[in-house]
Design a protein that fits this description.
The chain is an alpha+beta fold and 127 residues long. Helices cover 43% and strands 20% of the residues.
């Protein structure tokens, strides 16, 4: 499935890929990059740039910093998630704190969501 995207956001997506947060880097390098299917970083979908996108699983992963807990951002996130769901995508959200304090559990949840029969501790052994 090919998703439409806003061409005006391409440069911004490239910049975000080069300047990932520490939490995005940790999830990418220590887990997502090692999965047996392609994962896109900072993928442009519609009028949004999502943190991670797995086409084969029709899944978006979003990592939320503290600004996402402000009412304005919470409402924008709800609208964004609804629009992505209309495209047939599942949206999984984690906080930066989840990545910092519960990384193994987040990875286990993702492995389960992707129906992977893998030993997450083996993937994370280089962490």
């Amino acid at each position: 499935m090919s998703l439409k995207y806003n061409k005006k956001l391409v440069k911004n997506a490239q910049t975000l890929r080069k300047n990932m947060t520490d939490e995005e880097k940790r999830l990418w390098y220590n887990f997502l990059k090692k999965l047996p299917f392609p994962v896109n970083r900072q993928k442009n979908i519609g009028n949004y740039i999502v943190d991670f996108y797995i086409a084969s699983k029709k899944t978006v992963i979003e990592l939320d910093g503290s600004q996402h807990f402000e009412e304005e951002h919470e409402n924008a996130d709800k609208l964004r998630d609804a629009e992505l769901r209309k495209l047939g995508l599942r949206v999984l959200r984690y906080t930066n704190d989840d990545i910092k304090k519960h990384f193994y559990e987040v990875c286990c949840e993702l492995a389960e969501a992707f129906e992977l029969s893998i030993d997450v501790s083996e993937i994370l052994s280089d962490e």
